[in-house]
Write a structure and sequence with these properties.
globular; 0% strand; 8 helices
Length: 248
């Protein structure tokens, strides 16, 4: 009697490392800077306009979700670079034309959660009761998780290999990735925070490269990690995915 064939486990894509993601992002930026610089400057202009609006009137904070549009635009470029596909600056403009609703919804969700958590943190620290301190502690950790989720969600939501999947499924995958690898994603969050702080100190850096470079690092790290998790959950990588290329 013929023996039953054992099921073959699906092959996982290579595990990402922060070091390789940073190195790959540096090469990516060298070859694609003329596409990334305008997208980064557009992001900075929108951020500056919103900052001025907030200074003029506190209600200007309601404009913060609009920053999701240039953010999505940058990630549209960086995820295509990470996937080894053709790239154009106009990929960034697509976020303003084709997916405005879902982009603003994700931006509003992140901003709304950040405002609620930051408010609870401030109120909790201002109080003198243990309950207030507990609320502040939970809110502080909530902000950390939100920071990690945002950097994980953007690459997955705009990933060209997952364009055919519902947005809710992509957001769910991002949340599962943070839960599955909190230490690794936490390390990524620290590196991205350091990049943005360095850019903010240099001022010119955040206008020209900091946001787009951080997005490149996130895309290089998150996409293969998401592919591995997809393989474990569904038995295969997303259709159209390809190994992250070391050269553009």
């Amino acid at each position: 009697m013929a023996s039953r064939a054992e099921p073959v486990a699906p092959e996982l894509s290579p595990a990402p490392s922060i070091r390789s993601a940073v190195g790959g992002a540096a090469r990516d930026f060298y070859y694609h800077s003329w596409r990334l610089l305008p997208a980064n400057i557009l992001w900075s202009v929108v951020a500056l306009v919103i900052l001025i609006a907030v200074i003029i009137a506190p209600a200007g904070i309601l404009l913060l979700p609009v920053l999701a549009l240039p953010t999505s635009g940058i990630f549209r470029i960086t995820t295509r670079i990470a996937r080894g596909g053709s790239v154009s600056f106009w990929d960034a403009i697509d976020a303003w034309r084709t997916t405005v609703g879902q982009t603003l919804a994700l931006g509003a969700g992140i901003v709304g959660a950040a405002v609620v958590l930051a408010t609870n943190l401030v109120l909790g620290l201002a109080g003198s009761s243990p309950l207030g301190w507990a609320v502040a502690t939970l809110a502080g950790w909530g902000l950390v998780v939100l920071w990690l989720f945002a950097w994980t969600a953007w690459p997955i939501v705009v990933d060209p290999a997952r364009a055919g999947r519902p947005v809710v499924d992509r957001i769910r995958l991002a949340a599962l990735l943070v839960l599955a690898h909190p230490i690794r994603i936490g390390g990524l969050g620290l590196v991205l925070g350091a990049i943005l702080v360095a850019g903010a100190v240099a001022v010119v850096g955040i206008v020209s490269i900091a946001v787009s470079f951080a997005a490149l690092v996130a895309s290089r790290y998150v996409l293969p990690a998401a592919d591995r998790l997809d393989t474990r959950l569904n038995g295969h990588e997303p259709a159209g995915s390809a190994p992250i290329a070391d050269t553009p």
